[in-house]
């Protein structure tokens, strides 16, 4: 039956070609994308970041958050870094006004432009910096896929529409992640990023004073913790900040899950992780120190997943010369 044999080998060939094409097309990202065009790229990023974080460890948190805020608005395309021009950019949206560390990204970009002009995208810098800051504060390391290109558009309205609210419930959070190809596991794992950093009172104050508009408190928040938070955030206080993981907010560990399991997650979105069987099981399992190794591993995997959201690759977009400006 030569024709049948010929036919099946043709189909195998076709499936193989489609598969390879699809893999290349789906992402265009790979570990070591700059191996030939700028072999020292990752070393340059690390060399810039390590001393910055050694001197100012509190910058690790906003730099990690910056990659998340980039990826959730128009995909990981560096749009969060663009300055406002004729219109207001993502940077101007309230959730982005508390981002810090843009000058660190610029410093990395300057070093990379010196080493390999016009090669490394700002979107990739955000992904590499997110990894390096976490590693620098005793967190895990992972292999970062690169090959993203930079977008040319940044709108305040898109940031406001796409960044998730700290008052979101589990249905909204899961939907927000799912829309970007991310799972409930990615949600609970990446929320573990709240093991570092700070929050302004306004991001959770209604939980203390006016949860449903009747002057009540959020019943999902530990009343003893509410009392402590009220001291730090008196009624109407906007400017004060609190550590999200008190006492170890500059060290990347798995304390976050202990906090959430004790009903001490700072945001309603953190507390909501107890309202879904899968995310709850993860929180409970990782609330003991036994879970830290797997959390570290999971965090790297989920960061890679997040870093794939709606990326521009190939000939799309551009490689910006300066991260705050389109070319
Ligand atoms: C799941 C939905 C999420 C919501 C609703 C949320 C919300 C927030 C809010 C409201 C703040 C405090 C902002 C302020 O008042 O200054 C914050 C801080 C932070 N978030 Fe999230 N976040 C989410 C997911 C993530 C993810 C996925 C990451 C990273 C993997 C992350 C990393 C951080 C970090 C590190 C900080 C501290 C920033 C600092 O110290 O300046 N968050 N988040």
Describe what you observe in this structure.
This is Peroxidase. It catalyses: 2 a phenolic donor + H2O2 = 2 a phenolic radical donor + 2 H2O. By secondary structure, the protein is mainly α. It folds into 2 domains: 133 residues, Peroxidase, domain 1 (Orthogonal Bundle); 134 residues, Peroxidase, domain 2 (Orthogonal Bundle), CATH 1.10.420.10. The strands form 2 sheets. The chain has a two-stranded antiparallel ribbon. α2 packs antiparallel against α5, α2 crosses α6 and α3 packs antiparallel against α6. It is globular and about 55 Å long. Protoporphyrin IX containing FE (HEM) binds next to α3, α9 and β3.
Give a short synopsis of this structure.
The chain has 327 residues and is mostly helical. 49% of the residues lie in helices and 3% in strands. It folds into two domains: 30-162, Peroxidase, domain 1, CATH 1.10.520; 170-303, Orthogonal Bundle (Peroxidase, domain 2).
């Amino acid at each position: 039956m030569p024709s049948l044999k010929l036919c099946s080998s043709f189909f195998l060939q076709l499936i193989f070609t489609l598969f390879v094409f699809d893999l290349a097309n789906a992402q265009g990202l790979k570990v070591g994308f700059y191996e030939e065009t700028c072999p020292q790229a990752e070393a340059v990023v690390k060399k810039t970041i390590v001393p910055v974080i050694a001197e100012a460890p509190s910058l690790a948190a906003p730099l990690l958050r910056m990659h998340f805020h980039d990826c959730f608005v128009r995909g990981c395309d560096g749009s969060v870094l663009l300055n406002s021009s004729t219109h207001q950019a993502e940077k101007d949206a309230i959730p982005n006004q508390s981002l810090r560390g843009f000058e660190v990204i610029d410093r990395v970009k300057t070093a990379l432009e010196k080493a390999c002009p016009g090669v490394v995208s700002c979107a990739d810098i955000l992904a590499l910096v997110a990894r390096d800051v976490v590693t620098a504060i005793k967190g895990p390391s992972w292999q970062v896929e690169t090959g993203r290109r930079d977008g040319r558009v940044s709108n305040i309205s898109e940031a406001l529409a796409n960044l998730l609210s700290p008052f979101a419930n589990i249905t909204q959070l899961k939907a927000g992640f799912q829309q970007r190809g991310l799972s409930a596991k990615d949600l609970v794992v990446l929320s573990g990023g709240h093991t570092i950093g700070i929050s302004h009172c306004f991001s959770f104050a209604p939980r203390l004073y006016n949860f449903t508009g009747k002057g009540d408190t959020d019943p999902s928040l530990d009343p003893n913790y509410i009392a402590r938070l009220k001291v730090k955030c008196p009624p109407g206080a906007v400017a004060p900040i609190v550590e999200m993981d008190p006492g170890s907010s500059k060290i990347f560990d798995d304390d976050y899950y202990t906090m959430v399991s004790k009903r001490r997650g700072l945001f309603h979105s953190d507390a909501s992780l107890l309202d879904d069987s899968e995310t709850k099981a993860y929180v409970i399992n990782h609330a003991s120190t036994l879970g830290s190794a797997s959390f570290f591993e999971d965090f790297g995997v989920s960061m890679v997943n997040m870093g794939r959201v709606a990326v521009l690759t190939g000939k799309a977009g551009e490689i910006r010369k300066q991260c705050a400006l389109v070319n």
